[in-house]
């Protein structure tokens, strides 16, 4: 009798344990054109609206389970539950290791918690998968500056602004002598 219950438990639990994230994590076909539109936007408001579309692309997880973990982490972060957000993003990265936004969001939590080394590691993973992710690029700049690596942070900020010249962090760029922004 116990074996029958044990078998039923194992059988019912198996699909949950075997659940995996889809292997092909990709952005919409028009994402490259969107990034070009952001780069060439004529004003901050146009860039802001276009940037919101890029964030929607990045924050669309590959399946419902991954989306639930992402949404939970972002909700916890917005209510300052950084430990809960960290836990959700850890679960997201473990479940869906090819999904770049999981790493980017985990990096943001690490940054907010002052764990700059962990933030940089996750930012680099994000950028290896999405080189023009202006959120990760600006995050790298801010992280480096918070680590006291001001020159490297300024260079990283220049990279971010090359992708999105209207980033709010643009005011942090110190112009080189004899140049204008």
From TrEMBL:
Keywords linked to the UniProt accession: Repeat, Signal, TPR repeat
SMART domains the record matches: TPR
Pfam families membership: TPR_16 (PF13432)
InterPro entries the record matches: TPR-like_helical_dom_sf (IPR011990), TPR_rpt (IPR019734), Ycf3 (IPR050498)
UniProt entry tagged with the keyword Signal: yes
Signal peptide (UniProt feature, chain positions): 1-18
Name of the featured protein: Tetratricopeptide repeat-containing protein
Species per Swiss-Prot/TrEMBL record: Actibacterium pelagium
Highest classification ranks of the organism: Bacteria, Pseudomonadati, Pseudomonadota, Alphaproteobacteria, Rhodobacterales
């Amino acid at each position: 009798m116990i074996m029958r219950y044990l078998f039923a438990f194992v059988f019912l639990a198996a699909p949950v344990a075997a659940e995996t994230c889809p292997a092909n994590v990709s952005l919409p076909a028009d994402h490259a054109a969107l990034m070009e539109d952001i780069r060439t936007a004529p004003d901050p408001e146009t860039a802001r609206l276009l940037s919101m579309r890029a964030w929607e692309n990045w924050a669309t997880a590959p399946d419902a389970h991954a989306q639930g973990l992402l949404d939970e982490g972002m909700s916890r972060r917005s209510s300052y539950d950084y430990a809960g957000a960290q836990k959700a993003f850890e679960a997201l990265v473990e479940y869906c290791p090819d999904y770049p936004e999981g790493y980017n969001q985990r990096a943001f939590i690490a940054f907010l918690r002052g764990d700059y080394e962990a933030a940089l590691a996750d930012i680099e993973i994000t950028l290896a998968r999405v080189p023009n992710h202006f959120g990760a690029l600006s995050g790298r700049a801010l992280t480096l500056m918070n680590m006291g690596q001001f020159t490297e942070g300024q260079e990283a900020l220049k990279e971010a602004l090359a992708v999105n010249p209207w980033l709010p962090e643009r005011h942090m760029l110190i112009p080189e002598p004899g140049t204008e922004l």
